[in-house]
Design goal:
By secondary structure, the chain is mainly alpha-helical. It has one domain. Helix content is 90%, strand content 0%. It has 1 helix and no strands. The protein is rod-shaped and about 45 Å long. The N and C termini lie far apart (43 Å).
Length: 30
């Protein structure tokens, strides 16, 4: 795998993790 592609995957995974954290915070508000 080329490094550029790896970096892009890392960025996407990071964004997804942040979104999941946000959603779980919303769920915990109930």
């Amino acid at each position: 795998m080329d490094v550029e592609r790896l970096e892009r995957y890392k960025d996407k995974i990071n964004l997804i993790e942040k979104r999941i954290e946000q959603i779980s915070e919303w769920i915990n508000l109930d």
